TrEMBL record:
The keyword Oxidoreductase applies. This is Alkylhydroperoxidase AhpD family core domain-containing protein. InterPro entries: AhpD-like (IPR029032), AhpD_core (IPR004675), CMD-like (IPR003779). SUPFAM superfamilies: AhpD-like. It comes from Pseudovibrio denitrificans. It comes from the Bacteria. Residues 25-106 form the Carboxymuconolactone decarboxylase-like domain.
Length: 117
C-alpha cells in the first residue's frame, strides 16, 4: 500500500489501536513495556535500535511500522544518509519486496521530517 499522507495514516492507526486497547489491556501494556525495554539505551543506542526497527518494518512489509519508526528515527537524530544505509541492508536481507518497502520507508521519513521542521 502506498501511503499518501503519513501523519493522517498514523492518526488513523492510533485510533484503531485506541479501540483495541480496552479489549486487551494487559497485552497492550505488555507490548508497551517490551517497546520501552527494547529501545532503551544498552550496548546499542536508541538511534541504532530504531534503524534496526525500521529495517525490520521494511522486511516485514509493515506500513504502520514504517511510519512509527520513521518518527522515532527523526526523534533520535537519524540522518537521511544513515537511513539509506539501513534500508540497503533491509533490501539485501529481504530482496525485491523489501526494495519496494524501502522506498515507502524513505517516503515516510521525508514526509515526517518535513513536518517536524
Amino acid at each position: 500500500m502506498a501511503v499518501e499522507n503519513w501523519q493522517e495514516f498514523l492518526k488513523q492507526t492510533d485510533g484503531r489501536l485506541a479501540e483495541l486497547r480496552p479489549g486487551i489491556p494487559g497485552v497492550m501494556k505488555g507490548f508497551g513495556e517490551i517497546a520501552k525495554s527494547a529501545i532503551g539505551t544498552g550496548a546499542l543506542e536508541p538511534k541504532q535500535k530504531e534503524l534496526i526497527a525500521i529495517s525490520i518494518g521494511v522486511a516485514a512489509r509493515c506500513d504502520a511500522c514504517l511510519g512509527y519508526h520513521a518518527k522515532a528515527c527523526i526523534k533520535y537524530g537519524v540522518t537521511r544518509e544513515e537511513l539509506m544505509e539501513a534500508l540497503g541492508v533491509a533490501v539485501y536481507m529481504g530482496g525485491g519486496p523489501s526494495l519496494m518497502y524501502a522506498a515507502e520507508a524513505l517516503s515516510a521519513f521525508d514526509a515526517l521530517l518535513e513536518e517536524a521542521k
